[in-house]
Amino acid sequence: MSTIVLRGGVEVEHPLEVALGFLEAYPGYEGHDSSGPVSFDERDLRLANRGGARISAAEIAAILERRGEIERALRKVRPDASLADATSSIPWIPLTRLFAAFADIRGIGFSKMTKALHRKRPALIPMLDSVVQAYLTRDDPGTGSSGSFGEHATALVRSYKRDLDRNRSALEEIQQELESREYRLTDVRILDLLIWSVAAGT
To answer: Among 33, 42, 66, 163, which has the highest number of CB atoms less than 10 A from its own CB?
Structure first.
């Protein structure tokens, strides 16, 4: 099994074991899209909460007031869109608009938003919790806070893509091994939990 190379020269030498350890420790963490690829409703937010999003009842109500805007934006992003695609093929502008639909909702930042959206586009949108955000911003000035909420979120995803591209072959190996064990995760999700597992432990 190939190693995963993270920033700062950090190597994850046994990435499959790390991934399996996470999945076994949190058996209910991974979930599937519950409302369909172009719908967005309370079920998606409840599912995100089962994955640790901690979206309050008031925040759920505020997000659902944007439901129409969110669903319109979702329809512009193909369900099979992947961060592994060529950069020129990724729907960056529609993705930015999707993120922008969550702007200025009190209590909602990149972590809660992407935990709610990941299952809608699992090969495209990583879960940008505080640990992953810190990892991405530590040595990448392009992920700074300038620009709108949507633009800032997209900058983080662009930065994430660089790690994904650098580890493409190894992630495909891990994905195949996990599938043989009945775990079906995208390469985006596998990289996410590897970054989290390593960065949270440093």
So the answer is: 163
Tokens of 97: 């608009």
CB-based contact 70:113 (threshold 8 Å): no
Structure token digits, residue 77: 């992003």
Q: Classify the C-alpha dihedral 171-174-178-180 as positive or negative.
A: positive
For 37, the token pair is 């690829």
In tens, the pLDDT along 146-183 reads: 789 999 999 999 999 999 999 999 999 999 999 999 99
Stated length of the chain:
202
User: Where do runs of H (alpha helix) occur along 81-145?
Assistant: 92-100, 110-117, 130-137
- Which amino acid appears at position 83 of this protein? L
- The residues, any chain, with a CB within 8 Å of residue 111's CB and separated by 6 or more, are 53, 127, 128, 129, 130, 133
Q: Which residues lie closer than 8 Å to 144 by C-beta, 6 or more apart?
A: 137, 152, 155
- 78 three-state secondary structure: coil
Per DSSP, what are the bridge partners of residue 11?
A: 5
Q: Are 83 and 126 in contact (CB under 8 A)?
A: yes
Q: Quick one: pLDDT at residue 143?
A: 77
The C-alpha atoms of residue 84 and residue 68 are separated, in whole angstroms, by 28
User: What one-letter code names the amino acid at 155?
Assistant: A
Query: Measured on CA atoms in the order 36, 62, 100, 123, is the torsion positive or negative?
Result: negative
User: Do 198 and 190 meet the contact criterion of CB atoms below 8 Å apart?
Assistant: no
